Structure formats: structure tokens, C-alpha cells
Amino acid sequence: MSPHPRPTPPADSRGTRAALIFALTAERLSIHYEHGQWLTEAQGASFIADWLRRSERALPLAERRQLSALSDGLARQIAGALSREAGLYTTHEMMEALDPNYDSELARSMMDECARLLDAD
């Protein structure tokens, strides 16, 4: 007997929005550490649209821009608070945690922070 796949939560659910902030923060940090550049708010909103499109979901541009801005603030806060080595480690853990089979205490902590950002916004 094969298990039933879990239904995909709506794009505007709290969990999906927190996961989008998390994924975009990881992407922003990766680009920052690899290329010394930061994504713009519009580029972040485009990443979100692309990710949602893969699962046939969508969010309005204003919401995508809001999530992009939240991830930008978090990514810059992380980069400013950590040494380069610690920042690279954090980025690696976050990128690895995009695989649902990867378990990381650091990534769980970062996901909690992403949820807090949504609650505070």
C-alpha cells in the first residue's frame, strides 16, 4: 500500500509564505557569498513567482514583493551578524534544507525566524 501524497498547501498559507522567505533568503545569501551581490526586491519577487509556478500556484505581485523585502532584510541581517565562514555555513545548511529529507537544527531555527517575520509584519 503506497502512502497518499500530502496535498500542496495554498500559496498564501502561513507555512508556504514562511517557506518562500526561507528559500529566498538562502538564495540571496548564496548569491551574496558567491558573487558579492544582492538580489533586488523585483528579482526576489520573480524567483517566488517561478517557484510557485512549478506547483501551479501564484501570489499577487504585492505579496511577492513583501516576501522578497522580508527575505532581503533577513539575509542582510545574517550576513552582517556572522563572519564569512559562519555565513557560508549557514547558507549551506539553508540550501541543503530545501530538500525535505534533510534535517538541520539550524535550518529549523531559521524557518522559525521566517515565521516570526510574517507574524511581525
Could you characterize what this model shows?
- With 121 residues, the protein is mostly helical.
- Helices cover 71% and strands 0% of the residues.
- It is built from 5 helices and no strands.
- Helix 1 crosses helix 4 (84-96).
- The termini are far apart.
Short summary of the structure?
This protein is an all-alpha fold and about 120 residues long.
Q: Please indicate the percent range of residues in DSSP E strands (runs of 2 or more).
A: under 5%
> How many separate domains?
1
Provide mean pLDDT, rounded.
93
Give the distance, in angstroms, between the N- and C-terminal Cα atoms: 43 Å
The class by helix and strand makeup works out as mainly alpha
The number of distinct helices, counting runs of at least 4 residues, comes to 5
Round the Cα radius of gyration to an integer and report it.
14 Å
Helix content: over 70%
Element string (H = helix, E = strand)? HHHHH
Number of beta-strand segments? 0
Low-confidence stretches: none
Shape: globular
Largest sheet geometry: none
